[in-house]
Fold these 4 entries.
Entry 1:
Amino acid sequence: MFTRIDHVMICVPDLEQAIAQYQDLGFNIHHGGSHPGKGTHNAIAFNQDDYVELLAIRDRDECERAGQSSRSHDGGLARFIGAGGGIRYIIVQSDALEGDVAAMRARGVDVSEVADGARRTPAGLELRWKVALLGAANPLPLLFIQHLTPVELRRAQVPGGGQHPNGVQGLERAYIVTSDAPSAAALYARVLGMPQPPLQKGTVIMSDMAVFQIGPTGLGIAQPYAPGPASEALERRGPGPFQALYRTASMQAAARWMHDHGLPPLPRGVRNTGEQAMLAPPELAGGAYIGFVGNP
């Protein structure tokens, strides 16, 4: 069963620079370690039950060799980063990945076998997981993961894990922009094994949206209806993930932290829920739109 969005993978050209950007946004973010044989390294900002991942190339030759495998999701990573980076994948968590892969195949979804994954943290802790990738017949920006390391140990890899100056508690929703939301939502519904949601109007990203609720997190398939973040992302990069929205305990605390760290006031809007949201643009967030919503 798919239980939640586990994290978004934000691919950046320079890990240290991106860490500094996310620290200015108020995330408690630290180096996460290297991926053996992948040529990449990352940084992690752990929330209560999900996290932010910044990923960069550590060894270009090793990364390119790894990307040639049909079982790798790293193919084209350098090209993606060279085009501006940002959110490349939305990773969906499963509590029984082999069963979910079998169910996807029964629905006619092209998906890989389950493979093992691991990385070692700077403190020497080995984190282990299982992963499955969509195949060429279903080239969606989703990965599927089942963690083998308990969440308490994963959170402990980051000093002060789950505590951020911006008050972020967890991921609210991740968005994928498209030029045809109904058709795209039908494909995501088949892949996820969920009913296709009706369209609703998104007033901050100026888009019609089909929102899949995966546990406590939402996956929004957005089609722009007016100029705004979604239309800008679609024009700049084409269809794909472009925004992650995080719930904070205090919008005021988040805004104060960013002001104190030299950031300009973030653009604000009102969601269709009536809540205020503010949005960090790609130039401040490693090529991604990063949104905040929550109490004043």
Entry 2:
Amino acid sequence: MSKSAARRFFLLGTAACSVAFVLLTVDTIKRVPAQTNQHQLTASAIRGKHLWDSKNCMGCHTILGEGAYYAPELTKVYERRGEVFIRAILKDPEAMYPGERKMVNYRLSEQEITDLVAFLKWIGEMDLNGFPPKPDIRSAIASPIKSGTAGSETTSAADVNVAAKPAVFDQMCTACHSVQGVGGAIGPALDGVGARRDSGFLSTWLKDPLSLKPDSRMPKLPLSESQVSELVVFLSGLKAEVAK
């Protein structure tokens, strides 16, 4: 190839790539309002964004792929944990994880907490083309374990209870406790808890663990009566210990 031909090839190739880049950029910008649900961006969420910046939350957390990796990634935190958990940890991080978490207590007002929750909810509902990928950490307790001989599999009553766990269990309890090996290790595993504790004890414990054990590291969770009832039914159904 002659020098003049190589020059033309380079110039035409550069021009074509530049045009393609511009067109792709324009197309991406056009998609932004729909994919970010811009019409759902409330005044509260906007205030939450300003609060996120002013408190330098990205100094520890990552959101939309940007930030630090010292603390958990928060793009889909609303989906994973729900509003109750987020409000509780923003109000008092140390109470949720005694001696475990290094998060600063910013002494946020109820309105500031509401604004941050609104911001995280809006971020979590964006169409990010599958980002971040969902970790496959719930399959062990999301699907009933089959028992019986080949061709005659059955599902035990305990398995049905495990499969029907309430959403608040995944949002709050698995941060510290595990079932069938899935969940946190800060608190004891809950396999077999239904055989060890009756529903009255479980209800009282969930409402105020310190009333039963003053030195307990478990905080008094902001659970509603209906959430406590759902958790008691679920936990009471966990009869079998996991074989180790």
Entry 3:
Amino acid sequence: MCFIFILSFNYFFIASQNKRTTSCYEKKWALFHPFAALKANKIYKRCLPFYEEVKKENTLDDFESGGKLDAFRHIFFMSAFAQKIKIRKIRKLGKAHEKGNYKHFLKNREEHGELPDSLSGVMDLFNNEVGFELGSENKKLNLKELKLLVVAELKKGCGLYFRRNAKKQYVNCSDEIILWENYLKKWFVPKCLIKTSM
């Protein structure tokens, strides 16, 4: 049993993907869900090449933070987890990750090249829920089929991402450019969440 607990701490997700330390909340999740953590680690490693494929091909966009690619990452990974792990367990993981993001914001640590913010958490949790539903409804799909399904659903507008202008700058819902100097050290940034079909 001790071996499982040690392995569960080594499990996956943000540390390897975002090149940052795993938050204490995620470690706590792994401690209380060691078998789910080991399973998630295995699934994560198998999913990563498919994510990299979508990223390289620029299938949706090239924004790992706040874009359709970000939405794809959350929906695809969570749908793959939901095929094999109970949703209540991976929902807790998603919430632990977002709690960790707030801590990283306070420490000025970036995720995918940007500081986390409150609306990014809202977006991620929404996209996680989409992933849970797709995964639980399509348990027999292999990862390639699941990837194609998630891309198709994103194009239909199942997910959320942030609006940007033609110059790739974040804008608010009135189409005004967000001036970052006005939001230094602020958790809330008035980005505009829109459906992935837009």
Entry 4:
Amino acid sequence: MAIPKGVMNKPVFMKLWENYPLFSKVILDVGIFLKYKTLKLTKIPSMITLPSRNVIYINNAENRGRALLISDGITQSRVTEFWGNAVESYKPTLVLDIGVNYGECIFSTKYDRDTTIVGIEANKYLIDYIDRSRQLHVNGNQIKIIHAFAGEHVKKDQAFFIDTHWSGTSSGVQISEKNSIEKTEVPAITVDSLFDKEALGDQRLLFKIDVEGYEFMVMKGMRKLLSNCHDVLGIVEFDSRYLEKAGVNLESYMNFLSEYFEIQFYDMDNQLKKLSSPSISELLKEFGAEHVHTDLIVSAKRSKDRDSRVLCMSQPY
């Protein structure tokens, strides 16, 4: 008997974790025991070989690291599937992973040798694991990992709340009152501050943003890239509850996205659909719910003539 991998998918498990943390911890322990026949940390791996044969290092005592062990490194299947297909078909020259976590996205595939690859992660407890994975990656010398908080403004100190029990819910806003939350400070940067505007004209940008409600702030801090790169394609987590906790006006966010992008989203059946009207009411209607958790596929409007395979490359799971 084994725990179905679908239970480890981020949206499913996060609901369990938020509402039933003790039960969720039991599920993880059972999953680890079924897979490795032990709960002794010294006998549980701290490295995962991904389907691509690349590896990631994880903290085998931390719950999200354990979820990755149980699911063979894939808790966000549609993200990693989209990412691998995009790298192969779209051939990006500039890659950004904002909210790296353990790196199951950025390290999931192989890149062209001329690709510039940047990962940004604010959780100080993950940096060592990320760097160990980078060193073993075939494109390791091309990958730059930045320990910072990506947002709208450059600041010396930005409050960052680390969930020491589940790294995936660490955020710039305290989204939980659990005693596992540790407040830290980290430098804040804008993505635009990393790049020279004049060097962007020929770049094909591929990006991922997963920062637990701060996606809008990140994108406002990368307007230069969005406006000046030759082509832009990205996947962005959209969780209306986390966005609202971060103080985001959802309608303003949707208006911003529609200014720069054509927008697609994954529906309840994991089918990729075009958003007919760029409004939060339209998105809520599609899900028939008060809150929405999905991933948005966004592509620059100026790239309408791009091969349609790029926009529809992700398949339902």
